[in-house]
UniProtKB/TrEMBL annotation:
Signal peptide: none annotated. Its main location: membrane. The keyword Transmembrane applies. This is Protein spinster homolog 1. The chain crosses the membrane at residues 99-119, 126-145, 165-181, 188-206, 218-238, 273-294, 323-344, 356-375, 381-411. It is found in: Lysosome membrane. Belongs to the major facilitator superfamily. Spinster (TC 2.A.1.49) family. Residues 61-454 form the Major facilitator superfamily (MFS) profile domain. The gene is SPNS1. It catalyses: a 1-acyl-sn-glycero-3-phosphocholine(out) + H(+)(out) = a 1-acyl-sn-glycero-3-phosphocholine(in) + H(+)(in); a 1-acyl-sn-glycero-3-phosphoethanolamine(out) + H(+)(out) = a 1-acyl-sn-glycero-3-phosphoethanolamine(in) + H(+)(in); a 1-O-(1Z-alkenyl)-sn-glycero-3-phosphoethanolamine(out) + H(+)(out) = a 1-O-(1Z-alkenyl)-sn-glycero-3-phosphoethanolamine(in) + H(+)(in); a 1-O-(1Z-alkenyl)-sn-glycero-3-phosphocholine(out) + H(+)(out) = a 1-O-(1Z-alkenyl)-sn-glycero-3-phosphocholine(in) + H(+)(in). One of its GO terms (biological process) is lipid transport. Keywords: Lipid transport, Lysosome, Membrane, Transmembrane, Transmembrane helix, Transport. One of its GO terms (molecular function) is transmembrane transporter activity. It comes from Cavia porcellus (Guinea pig).
Amino acid sequence: MAGSDTAPFLSQADDPDDGPVPGTLGLPGSLGNPKSGEPEVPDQEGLQRITGLSPARSALIVGVLCYINLLNYMDRFTVAGVLPDIEHFFSIGDSSSGLIQTVFISSYMVLAPVFGYLGDRYNRKYLMCGGIAFWSLVTLGSSFIPRERFWLLLLTRGLVGVGEASYSTIAPTLIADLFVADQRSRMLSVFYFAIPVGSGLGYIAGSKVKDVAGDWHWALRVTPGLGVVAVLLLFLVVREPPRGAVERYSDSPPLNPTSWWADLRALARNRSFILSSLGFTAVAFVTGSLALWAPAFLLRSRVVLGETPPCLPGESCSSSDSLIFGIITCLTGVLGVGLGVEISRRLRHSNPRGDPLVCAAGLLGSAPFLFLALVCARGSIVATYIFIFIGETLLSMNWAIVADILLYVVIPTRRSTAEAFQIVLSHLLGDAGSPYLIGLVCCLRQGPQMTGLW
């Protein structure tokens, strides 16, 4: 897998039956010159002619997509920010509360292939508008569920997956059709900043809105209003660029999509896509369980250390750990994504495998620090926060790079499908089960006793 400076963007490099797409210039490079082997990248005027969009409009579209990406993750982790209050309100244990995230992720990964198929064939702007409008409505409804209807909360969180699937499978492909080479890498890094920042804001918004309103239900009523704004911005600002035109360096007609089964066969033979997706699955397993359980774990750690009283029935739980963890997630996300993109950009000039090497180093390097965070939880909450900070920074190095790898090893007419199946794989074997698994292990270790960390 090469970086965006050297990879054959418009070829299925690992698939012998999928050579360069007709219209692809020489290799290497996304727009390679057949004589010099150097990438030919259209200038701003060329991009505007090809896409029909000014540089300012293209940047504004990326800004709107970033806002919605931030909003999606903010909503996802608002629940984690008030999880202790949800447990007390519905009188549920850790295994049941772990199901909240598992049901959402399961729905998300089931719907992702549907929107991946639609996103490769129909207007992406309108698909996202419909999905986000539905997501906003369902999220608002989930804040009015009575305490004896926990199953209804699970149902509504599952339906939230409609909006997430409609957006996550499509938005990166729009960016790919607006920019190429280093421009694309930079825009993707901006787009993926929104994941950790939005996650952190979810913890912060959940905890602070609960404190101000005195009721955790209000924490779930913030993002639906912002979702309405997102739909309006999508409708008014975003325009559909021609698929793959910037990489062909022409304004010729878009590539014709192949059948869904042909897409699946080609993706299954694309080793770069499969291996990078498996690596990202490991990231999803860790971040999924960490995202849901870290605030609750930190709260219990401070209870064990005698720094805060335990949650009592009928009383609001301390929200300081959700706030601090949210701030850490925001900072480490910005630092990790930026660091990963910059290191890979420099490394790929001397090593064509720079991108996957940076991802592997970040994932492997995070393991000892997250383990030390668990070990130190009974002795020092400060040390725990420090090790979580380092571990999350290293994990965040993967986000933008993995997305860039997918875009330059998969042809434009298969990218939404590839995004969808990367989502399915990473969630099915990653964060769909890890939150529930952690909660189940916690319950089994505690038995009838509900004290201590796990």
